[in-house]
Fold this sequence. Notes:
Shape of chain A: flat
Helix content of chain A: over 70%
Number of domains of chain A: 1
Strand content of chain A: under 5%
Number of strands of chain A: 0
Strand content of chain B: under 5%
Radius of gyration of chain B: 19 Å
Number of helices of chain B: 4
Distance between the termini of chain B: 65 Å
Helix content of chain B: over 70%
Radius of gyration of chain A: 15 Å
Structural class of chain A: mainly alpha
Oligomer: heterotrimer
Shape of chain B: elongated
Structural class of chain B: mainly alpha
Order of helices and strands of chain B: HHHH
Largest interface: A-B, 50 and 55 residues
Distance between the termini of chain A: 53 Å
Amino acid sequence: MADFLVYLAAVLAGGAFLLALFRFLRGPSPVDRVVAFDVLTVIAITGIILAAVVADRVIYLDVALVYALLSFLGVIVVARYLERGA
Amino acid sequence: MGPLFDILGGLVLVAGTAFLLLGGLGLNRMPDVFNRIQAGTKATTLGTILTLTGIAMMHPDWALKLLLIGMFLLFSNPLSSQVLARAAERTHVHKTSRTRIDRFEQDHDQGEEA
Amino acid sequence: MSTLTLLMAVLAAVAMLGGAAVAVASKSTPVAILAAGLVSLMASVLFVLLAAPDVAMTEAAIGSGLTTFLFFFVLGRVKEEQDDD
């Protein structure tokens, strides 16, 4: 039962990933793409954690931790560049 | 932990990823950048926190690391959403025609007149 | 490799292809840099799925974090010099 729920969660996260990827590919403004990139990063963190549960390895969580630290740095750098460039 | 906690954690996990899916849906359905920022950051923050809680219920010995990840996300998501909204406002992106009121623009105009 | 891991790997690979296509096709430089960052993000997820968490951590820190940061820093400096002329 619990395994099934993990699989269902992975499928839902995959759907969210595809939707966010669609927005990233379509644009239209650069800020749209940055928002989509942010969402993709958060969903990637969820995906890594689900992979950690499926493989039953704690060490994968460290990668997710590095992501949580770095993703927001990237978004802020891009946003600062965009608002200065206008 | 017992099998009851496993299933309970799994249900919370599914609820969290459902919120992620709703966030992705909002990212595609919302009419302009500002609405998309709301869907993209608020829904996904709730979704990730619920996901982390669910997994902490399934694996109580991982709870500390999951708590750390959740704290970083709670710090970074509102910050990035605010910075993105400011960048969108300053680059004058297209607003939806259904925008009723823009307090920021009103304040800005009054400031220039004074 | 379980079926679920395989599906996640396929999804990451599709995202890498999409990001690479945007990086090549886009006319705006910031969007191209962001797309390159997406490619490296997904490469790192792929490394996790291939059971190499240390490689994934390095890729996340260097490829996705530092490279994007460096590109935008340099882009800002180039723009400043162009504005001075």
